[in-house]
Design goal:
- By secondary structure, the chain is of the alpha+beta class.
- The protein has 14 helices and five strands.
- Helix 1 packs antiparallel against helix 9, helix 4 runs antiparallel to helix 5 and helix 13 packs antiparallel against helix 14.
């Protein structure tokens, strides 16, 4: 940033130095012409030149006017190819006119144009060819070369008007200004090169930092995935322990009472039939209570959506939320009515669809998922396909294993394949046959 500001200051200094130099040379030429006219030595002056000089006051006026026009062009920053070409061509044309007005005694303005090209178009594909063209123009506007093809009045002719010591002083100042302009140009180009090198180093450093950050993020993601897997296993273990406790406390208790009661009934059956009936009624009540307790334990695993909505709306809500949150297109088509299922059936259907969507997005990197649910006779069919990366060799993980376990509880079946994306097909026997239950 500091080098960029310094280069800006140096460019402004170059513009001011060129202005001073052009003013200096044009003033010498105009002053000489007026002096020659005042001293009535115009004839001697004309004998030394091959072309008629312009009116004295026009020389500084034309030189300064052209130079101001060039400065205005410097302010235009057009990165389009055609605009760039036109801008540089106009600058070169004006620069050539300034050299012509000053008798080609000063060509530093061409270097200023080259500096402008290198400054405002550091990444343009036109920069290098135009830099070569401008450098060649700088070499071609030398007085000795131009004077071969056109009659030019050199600055030395105008300096002859002055005395010898003054002439040497004026010529020395002009050469000093020219040399100073060349020095500033070289320093400016070196600064531009350093700025570009610094920019490349900064970009390289940013890329290295970005790569390092990406590696850290990748490792962090791996640690998070490992932590998530460990957390999932820990949660699974906790849930198993909770279910084991629930089963032990509820079902175990109920079964123990049932077994004991049945054993008592075998003893009382022949001697006290009425007592046996009462005992059987008590056993039935205990069994019902055990079933209720087991259902209460199972309900703790039931999705919250199914607690609040029916299965159709719960599936639609889950699919819509997943699609909106992941920006994955999920097409859902259901031709079967989903009312009349028991809670465990609803839970299995909901969990299978949910697990398939999660696997398609997380493992398959899918962008489109198709979900179809239909009914054929007494069989409910689910088909979930995606356009993900698929897999040639399927290693059955927790998700597929868990889906098979759920379906086995309902005497269902599961098929899957990863040849083209990933496809999961599940079939669930409908307990109530081909006719739907009537709503209570």
């Amino acid at each position: 940033m500091e080098e960029s500001r310094n280069s800006d200051y140096l460019f402004i200094l170059m513009k001011n130095l060129n202005l001073i130099t052009i003013l200096y040379i044009s003033y010498i030429m105009a002053y000489s012409l007026y002096g020659v006219i005042q001293e009535h030595s115009a004839l001697d002056f004309l004998e030394k030149i091959d072309t008629m000089p312009p009116v004295g006051w026009k020389i500084p006026l034309l030189a300064i006017g052209l130079y101001c026009s060039c400065l205005l062009l410097f302010q235009i920053q057009n990165t389009y190819a055609l605009g760039f070409v036109c801008k540089v061509c106009l600058e070169l044309g004006i620069g050539f006119c300034i050299c012509f007005v000053t008798g080609f005694s000063y060509t530093g303005v061409i270097l200023l144009i080259l500096a402008d090209v290198m400054r405002y178009f550091p990444r343009s594909k036109w920069r290098f060819p135009f830099a070569v063209i401008i450098s060649m123009c700088y070499l071609l506007v030398d007085y000795n070369l131009v004077s071969v093809y056109r009659n030019i009045t050199p600055l030395e002719i105008y300096l002859d008007y002055f005395q010898k010591d003054v002439r040497f002083l004026l010529l020395g100042i002009k050469n000093a200004l020219n040399s100073l302009n060349m020095l500033l140009f070289l320093v400016y180009m070196i600064m531009l090169m350093r700025i570009q090198l610094s920019e490349k180093e900064r970009i390289l450093h940013l890329n290295e930092t970005l790569n390092h950050t990406n590696e850290e993020l990748r490792q962090a993601n791996m640690r998070l995935e490992e932590y998530a897997k460990e957390s999932e296993k820990a949660a699974e273990a906790r849930e198993r322990n909770r279910l084991a406790r629930e089963i032990h406390d509820t079902l175990g208790h109920a079964l123990t009472g049932i077994i004991t009661g049945i054993e008592a009934c075998t003893v009382l059956m022949d001697v006290a039939p009425e007592a046996t009936k009462a005992q059987l009624n008590a056993i039935a009540e205990m069994a019902r209570q055990g079933v209720t307790d087991v259902r209460s334990s199972v309900n703790a695993l039931r999705p919250d959506a199914l607690e609040k909505l029916d299965l159709e709306k719960a599936l639609t809500q889950m699919i819509d939320e997943m699609s909106r949150s992941t920006n994955v297109e999920i097409a859902y088509q259901c031709t079967a009515r989903l009312n009349g299922f028991d809670e465990d059936e609803e839970n299995v259907i909901y969990r299978i669809v949910q697990e398939c969507i999660t696997n398609s997005i997380r493992h398959g990197k899918a962008k489109r998922i198709q979900i179809g649910i239909d009914k054929e006779y007494n069989m409910l069919k689910l088909r979930i396909t995606d356009n993900g990366i698929g897999c040639g060799t399927i290693k059955k993980g927790f998700g597929l294993h868990h889906m098979e376990e759920r379906l086995n509880l309902l005497h269902g079946s599961l098929k899957y394949g990863g040849a083209d994306g990933f496809t999961v097909e599940a079939q669930i026997p409908i307990r109530w046959g081909t006719e739907e239950k009537k709503d209570d």
